[in-house]
Amino acid sequence: MIYEEIKHILKDIKECSPGQDEFYQATREVLESIVPLLEADSRYLEQNIIKRLVVPDRTIIFRVNWVDDRGVVQTNLGYRVQFNSAIGPYKGGLRFHKSVNLGVVKFLGFEQIFKNALTSLQIGGAKGGSNFNPKGKSDNEVMRFCQSFMNELYKYIGKNRDVPAGDIGVGKREIGYLFGQYKKLTGDFDGVLTGKGLNWGGSFGRKQATGYGSVYFAQEHLGVYNNSLEGKTCVVSGSGNVAIYTIEKLQDLDAKVVACSDSTGTIYHKNGIDLASLKAVKEIHRESLKSYAKIHPDSKFIDISHYPEGGHAIWHIPCDVAFPSATQNELSLIDAKELVKNGCILVNEGANMPTTPDAIEYLQQNGVLFSPGKAANAGGVATSQLEMSQNAAMTQWNFEEVDIKLHQIMKSIFKVAYETSIEYKNRGNLIVGANIAGFKKVADSMIDQGAV
Ligand code: NDP
To answer: If we measure between CA atoms, which residue out of 127, 103, 102 comes closest to residue 114?
Structure first.
């Protein structure tokens, strides 16, 4: 009966959101995993909570015109999906990548609702971005794009209303240009964006937060099984913000990271990734990982085209723990089979929805522990909320203070997800635990606030 109802809702979503495959994938995962809660408590279906939750409060789509270095006007699309504000002001990142479309922004916004609820902080779910591709653009072009983007976005955001942050393609440089334009348009120096520079309202530890938090989560997860990261061989996909600080924390904890990747390919460095070189190549020079291989001739660069059948080279490198930390659907069934074959014990998602549903099923069936992104990568948004708290109090905590809070938050997210999985008779299934815990908090708040 409940399965039938869920099937109907999913069918409606598919029909109403044609072509939005990632959004459908994200809603399906959540709805199917909360069945044990729906069976235990009839209020959620009676009050139509699910149908209300899968439709964003508001979707804003706008044109962004900007002038390139040749003086030619370029046009991109801008998006902000304000999904749900039952527990606090909208909060979620902005992604600038050529693959951004409405379905991608909606999947990210939907995931963000539950992730933010899991942090135990008061933040609602949203996401935004543009199909603008920052690759190969000059700093001036990126600045002009960000200014034009904010010329429209500023009407819909505010420190108590909607507080965007970074995501793929949006780091400190872009947040700076966006913040500068917001300030110019409104005249207010507000904590309206997070991920700000340390001199102008940013928080220590925000840059590291998602990566460090992901590793803290993995540590908790292994701890339940009397295991730890120490001495483990790890692979971390991506080489952006999340991946770099995942690698940094893993190395702090004496794990050995032998591979990372980017959109051009994978680096396999059997002796261990050299973090200083990686930061120089990716953070400072914004180059391909091919440059890393030139600095380290004992490493191997495997071009992205190497696995035409749909797998990714990085998951075929033997490891104990895998940290998918680049983008959605980057770890497929082919890759999961390879991880199992090579004895991987844990897949810990740093990115949003990086593992395909069939890959997750295969990993779980074969006894590989699985940490879902909406729990494991929540350290970034949690620290963004800490940045908002510091802005509101006009103060700045030091790195250690923030890191201690982050560590506590990650421990408590793990605890709630794990204990909820037990309560709903799925011991250790953190997809069920995280989704039910996040959903329950938001759904109960929606019921309290009536049909709005
Ligand atoms: P960045 O832009 O800093 O880095 C993304 C990395 O992934 C880059 O190395 C990029 O390669 C690589 N990448 C992107 N798309 C692809 C692709 N299609 N194939 C292969 N590699 C790809 O982004 P973040 O590190 O901030 O984000 C990574 C993931 O983590 C995303 O899923 C994001 O939503 C999620 N996340 C981020 C948070 C944050 O605080 N930043 C918080 C929570 C989740 P290249 O260098 O060549 O561009």
So the answer is: 127
